[in-house]
C-alpha cells in the first residue's frame, strides 16, 4: 500500500526574515543603478550613482562561499557611470554603455580579466551612446536592446559577435523604445520585458514580453511571460532560472516581490517578498540557486546593505502559518486546512523541478486532495507563496 508522509520542518521566529538573510554590506559608497556580473562563485558589483549624486567606477567582488567582499580594480578614470550593462562571457566580465551623471552617454565597452585584475578596452559601440539598455546572450553573441540617450528612448537592436569582435545592427524592437526593462535568454531565443517605452506617465509602459529569433532576425510577443507594467526591476539569470525582483509601477509604488521563472517550461513561482523597506535600483546576482541583492534606494535614500534569499524557503514553515496539511488513514489522500480568507484561492502541486502538475481551488476551510495517481517522490503543496513538502512513498 502506498502512503503519504507530510514533512513538517521547524517553525521560524519571524515570518520570512530567516529566508531573506542579511549579508555583509557592499563596502563602497551607498549607490543605486549599478551593474553586476558573475564568474563562478565570485559576483562583481560596481558603478552606479553614489550617495553624493556622482557617478562611480569602483568595483567589488562578493565571494558567495564565505560571504565576504573584496575590492578589485576600478574602471579607468573618466569612465564612471550609471545605468550600464553588466554581464559575463566565458571567463571575463563586461561593462557596456551607461551615462556619466552629467548628460554624457557612453559608447565604451570594457572587459574585466580576473586573472590579472585589469580592465581592457573592447571595440566601442558604433552607434550613439546609450544607457539603461536591455541585453541577452545567445551562444557567442551579445544582443544590446533599446536604452535611452539625449534623443529619447531607443528601439535599436545591436549584436556584438565575440567570434569576430565586431558589431552588427539587427532588426529593431516592434515598439517605440525600451528603457530599464530586463533581458534574458533561453536556448536559441532572447527576450526583453517590462520597462518604459516613453516618458508618458500613463501610456509609456511596456507590458509585454518580446521574443527574438536570431536565425530569422525577427521579434514576436510572448504572452506566456508577463511581468506587467514596471521598471527599475532587479533581475538575474543562472542557466535556466530567472529571478525577477521588485520594480516601480505607474503609480510610483516600489515592489518587494520576487519571482523565479523556469525558462525551460516558462513556469513561474512566487518566492517570499523582501521583508525590509522596499528598494529599487539594486544590483542582483544568483549563486547556486540563491538570489542576492545589494545597494539601491530606500525611501529616497541610497543604501549599501545586501540580502540573500535561499530556495530552501520552499520547505520551510512560517510562524504565521496560513494552512496545514495532514494525512488520513487511506494514505492516498491529504487534507488541507486553511483560514476562511483563503477560500477561493488555488493550491498548486509541484514536482521537484518546480513544475506545476496539478491545481485545486479551495471551496471550504478543510478539503481533501487526492495524490493516488502521483508517482512516488517528493512534491510541494503551494498556496499564496507558502509551500509544504510532501513525500509520497
Written description of the protein model:
With 393 residues, this protein is mainly beta. It is built from no helices and 36 strands. The strands form ten sheets. It has a five-stranded antiparallel sheet, with no helix packed on it. A four-stranded antiparallel sheet has the order 2-29-28-27, with no helix packed on it. The chain has a four-stranded antiparallel sheet with strand order 4-5-7-8, with no helix packed on it. Strand 11 and strand 12 form a beta hairpin. The radius of gyration is 22 Å and the shape is globular.
Write the layout of secondary structure elements.
Elements: E1 4-7, E2 20-23, E3 31-32, E4 35-39, E5 42-46, E6 49-50, E7 59-63, E8 68-72, E9 85-89, E10 92-96, E11 109-113, E12 118-121, E13 134-138, E14 141-145, E15 148-149, E16 152-153, E17 157-161, E18 166-170, E19 182-186, E20 189-193, E21 209-213, E22 218-221, E23 234-238, E24 241-248, E25 254-262, E26 267-271, E27 283-287, E28 290-298, E29 301-309, E30 323-327, E31 333-338, E32 346-350, E33 356-361, E34 366-370, E35 377-383, E36 386-392
Antiparallel strand pairs: 1-36, 2-29, 3-6, 4-5, 5-7, 7-8, 9-10, 10-11, 11-12, 13-14, 14-17, 15-16, 17-18, 19-20, 20-21, 21-22, 23-24, 24-25, 25-26, 27-28, 28-29, 30-31, 31-34, 32-33, 32-35, 35-36
Amino acid at each position: 500500500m502506498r502512503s503519504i508522509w507530510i514533512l513538517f520542518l521547524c517553525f521560524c521566529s519571524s515570518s520570512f526574515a530567516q529566508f531573506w538573510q542579511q549579508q555583509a554590506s557592499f563596502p563602497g559608497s551607498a549607490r543605486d543603478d549599478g551593474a553586476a556580473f558573475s564568474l563562478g562563485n565570485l559576483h562583481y558589483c560596481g558603478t552606479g550613482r553614489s550617495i553624493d549624486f556622482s557617478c562611480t567606477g569602483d568595483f567589488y567582488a562578493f565571494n558567495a562561499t564565505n560571504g565576504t567582499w573584496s575590492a578589485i580594480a576600478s574602471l579607468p578614470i573618466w569612465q564612471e557611470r550609471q545605468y550600464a550593462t553588466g554581464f559575463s562571457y566565458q571567463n571575463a566580465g563586461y561593462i557596456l554603455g551607461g551615462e556619466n551623471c552629467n548628460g554624457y552617454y557612453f559608447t565604451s565597452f570594457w572587459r574585466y580579466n580576473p586573472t590579472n585584475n585589469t580592465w581592457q578596452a573592447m571595440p566601442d559601440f558604433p552607434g550613439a551612446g546609450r544607457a539603461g539598455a536591455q541585453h541577452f546572450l545567445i551562444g557567442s553573441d551579445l544582443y544590446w536592446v533599446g536604452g535611452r540617450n539625449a534623443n529619447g528612448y531607443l528601439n535599436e537592436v545591436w549584436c556584438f559577435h565575440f567570434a569576430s569582435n565586431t558589431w552588427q545592427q539587427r532588426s529593431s524592437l516592434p515598439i517605440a523604445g525600451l528603457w530599464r526593462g530586463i533581458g534574458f535568454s533561453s536556448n536559441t531565443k532572447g527576450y526583453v520585458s517590462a520597462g518604459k517605452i516613453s516618458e508618458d506617465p500613463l501610456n509609456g509602459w511596456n507590458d509585454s514580453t518580446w521574443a527574438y529569433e536570431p536565425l530569422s532576425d525577427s521579434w514576436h510577443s510572448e504572452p506566456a511571460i508577463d511581468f506587467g507594467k514596471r521598471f527599475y526591476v532587479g533581475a538575474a539569470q543562472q542557466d535556466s532560472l530567472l529571478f525577477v525582483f521588485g520594480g516601480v509601477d505607474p503609480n510610483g509604488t516600489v515592489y518587494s516581490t520576487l519571482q523565479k521563472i523556469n525558462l525551460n517550461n516558462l513556469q513561474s513561482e512566487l518566492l517570499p517578498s523582501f521583508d525590509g523597506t522596499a528598494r529599487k535600483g539594486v544590483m542582483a546576482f544568483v549563486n547556486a540557486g540563491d538570489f542576492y541583492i545589494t545597494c539601491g534606494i530606500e525611501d529616497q535614500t541610497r543604501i549599501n546593505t545586501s540580502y540573500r534569499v535561499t530556495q530552501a524557503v520552499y520547505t520551510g514553515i512560517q510562524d504565521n502559518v496560513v494552512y496545514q496539511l495532514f494525512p488520513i488513514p487511506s494514505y492516498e489522500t491529504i487534507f488541507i486546512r486553511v483560514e476562511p480568507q483563503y477560500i477561493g484561492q488555488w493550491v498548486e502541486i509541484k514536482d521537484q523541478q518546480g513544475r506545476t502538475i496539478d491545481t485545486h481551488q479551495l471551496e471550504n476551510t478543510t478539503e481533501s486532495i487526492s495524490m493516488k495517481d502521483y508517482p512516488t517522490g517528493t512534491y510541494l503543496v503551494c498556496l499564496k507563496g507558502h509551500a509544504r513538502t510532501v513525500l509520497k512513498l
